[in-house]
What we know:
The protein is mainly beta. Helix content is 7%, strand content 27%. The chain has one domain (9-94). A five-stranded antiparallel beta sheet has the order 4-3-2-1-5, with helices on one face. The mean pLDDT is 93.
Amino acid sequence: MDRNGLINIYEQYCLNNYRYGFFIRESTWKSIGKVLFIVGIKEGDNLKGNPPYFNNPKVYVKLFYAFSIGEINRNTNSRVIKICDGGTYRYQSVDENFRFS
């Protein structure tokens, strides 16, 4: 956690009980991302290295082009991206109540 109370993707994985599938966003995205996996980390396993960067492994995220999590379904346009800076505090968690304004 940084001094503003923000948490990075790796910390979010830990807070999500070491499970993938949590949602994130980044201020420049016009989409919502679902974390698919962290390279080298089997779901349920602890991260390697020291917090908060945990050796900064790559993160794969599915970006959904929707205004809220509730709008996401099998027909929602999406693409998969690779994030190489998951240890930064650019990526904020979102929950079911999130909606772009």
